Amino acid sequence: MSMIAAFYGGKSILITGATGFMGKVLMEKLFRTSPDLKVIYILVRPKAGQTLQQRVFQILNSKLFEKVKEVCPNVHEKIRAIYADLNQNDFAISKEDMQELLSCTNIVFHCAATVRFDDPLRHAVQLNVTATQQLLLMASQMPKLEAFIHISTAFSNCNLEHIDEVIYPCPVEPKKIIDSMEWLDDSIIDEITPKLIGDRPNTYTYTKALGEMVVQQESGNLNIAIIRPSIVGATWQEPFPGWVDNLNGPSGLIIAAGRGFLRAIKATPMAVADLIPVDTVVNLTLAVGWYTAVHRPKSTLVYHCTSGNLNPCNWGKMGFQVLATFEKIPFERAFRRPYADFTTNNFMTQYWNAVSHRAPAIIYDFYLRLTGRKPRMTKLMNRLLRTVSMLEYFINRSWEWSTYNTEMLMSELSPEDQRVFNFDVRQLNWLEYIENYVLGVKKYLLKEDMAGIPEAKQHLKRLRNIHYLFNTALFLIAWRLLIARSQMARNVWFFIVSFCYKFLSYFRASSTLKV
Question: How far apart (Å, rounded) are the C-alpha atoms in residues 226 and 113?
């Protein structure tokens, strides 16, 4: 019997960010392993004309929850959706709902955050810092609360090369940042943002570091733990391999490369791609929730959920495997033959962007105009290149994260818990994982039918032939122009032709003598 699964039985659990990628997988795992839990409260804001109940219904009717319905048929009754807006004071939760949350909640999993790298500082502070502060205030008024688990990021201190499982201070106190956001206008905030974030690459990593400081300062007598996952990717094993439902991180790059939009990335091939499957993060999160509530550590423990120090995979190897998978499982309606090159040269990156990205997009938009359709490829390509440029910081560097607390926790688990809540990334086979990831992107993100693979392979073959034909024609035209202008080029050409002729003559003569 799993001690962790039994611990969550009969519990009332509050999850923020439950409608996000990780939040959904966290809910699924809880219902599947602890179907006798009492209730899961989720904070939801109506979206795109949908009511709270419609959003919950949409989540539960996805493929992700198919296994849950077998072990927990009344899962609809165990989810309590509460209207909330993390941009508002007290989250705009009604008095009745607030009273229920404060009096009943046993465990809090704070997963909500903005993960946009280019978010304005004001919005990033509100969601990643102020909302965390307000949730901690709520938690301090929960008499039945046993543990508060805060999901941060392994890149909150990416300005350091070696990162320990400790909370690092920021130069400016979080309270001062929160207060200043209330009276500074947007233009001044935009002006001081580069000075505030310092040597961090964006507002996301900076505000996540501030959020950790808030957790440390506002923890009081709460049992709190912080989990720092690295780049969160598709599921590894649970509930099935390859499930993904958003374009963040590698997923967007896989689609861009598979459709032929992305041809080159400014990246260091030997840099470690610290990718971590989402179900690994969820398993660690639930194990940390159990350990924090049962063992009550004297201080706030930080757990790194990373792969690079235990089972490293570099970007070059990962990119090669992605391209190899495209050959077996191509995407439908590819714009060009999938190909991606890694370069650390700024000039080469600019060249590729101009020649291999923007030029075909401009030509394609010209074709769309001629056929009376709205041009869209240039806009799409510019957006893609902006996204890639924001990722360059992370795909050109490697970090070392200590994992003492994570390894300690693993040693505390029973063999059954190590199996049911497995977060040992040393068991991960990267080649299988990446292939399942690409397949998952095709099935769950692009909604492509697997029956269309033969046709997609034929389309890929046509694109490959066009690619080779275009390159051959380009080479011959360039060489012809060079021969017409340069005597040295003509001499080289005649030497090559003469050498090939003599070699073929010698080969034929040798073959005749042998006969």
Answer: 14
In whole angstroms, what is the distance from residue 148 CA to residue 28 CA? 19
* Helices and strands, number each (H, E), in the chain: 21, 13
Q: 105 in the Ramachandran plot: left (φ > 0), alpha (ψ -120 to 50) or beta?
A: beta
Chain centroid to CA 427: 21
Does position 515 have pLDDT exceeding 50, yes or no? Answer: no
Look at residue 139 and tell me whether its pLDDT is greater than 70.
yes
CA distances from 354 to 226, 348, 390, 475 (A): 43, 10, 18, 19
CB 31 within 8 A of CB 238: no
Name the residue among 319, 350, 323 with its Cα closest to residue 338. Answer: 323
Q: Which residue has the higher pLDDT, 396 or 228?
A: 228
By the 8 A CB rule, do 281 and 232 touch? yes
Residue 506 has pLDDT above 80, yes or no: no
Residues 318, 61: Cα–Cα separation, whole Å: 33
Pairwise CA distance, residues 10 & 8, whole Å: 6
Helix, strand or coil, per DSSP, at residue 434: helix
pLDDT tens per residue across span 25-82: 999 999 999 999 999 999 998 777 788 888 888 889 989 999 998 888 888 889 999 9
User: So what's the pLDDT on residue 303?
Assistant: 97
User: What does the pLDDT average to over 394-406?
Assistant: 93
Please tell me which residue, 182 or 364, carries the higher pLDDT value: 182
CA gap 16, 150 in Å, rounded = 10
- Asked if pLDDT for residue 509 goes beyond 70, the answer is no
In this prediction, residues 451-465 reach a mean pLDDT of: 71
CA distance 26 to 137: 23
Radius of gyration from C-alpha coordinates of the chain: 27
Beta bridge partners of 228: 304
Contacts of 191 (CB under 8 A, 6+ apart): none
What sign results for the dihedral spanned by CA atoms 304, 310, 311, 314? Answer: positive
Cα–Cα distance list, 422 to 5, 234, 286, 403 (Å): 13, 15, 10, 15
Distance of alpha carbon 200 from alpha carbon 332, whole angstroms:
38
Q: What are phi and psi of 324, to 5 degrees?
A: -65, -35
Global confidence as pTM: 0.86
Tell me the C-alpha distance between 242 and 505, whole Å.
56
Distance CA 81, CA 257 (A): 38
Q: Strand, coil or helix: what is 424? A: coil
Neighbours of 358 (CB within 10 A): 16
What's 411's DSSP letter? Answer: H
**CA–CA separation, 483 and 273 (whole Å):** 45
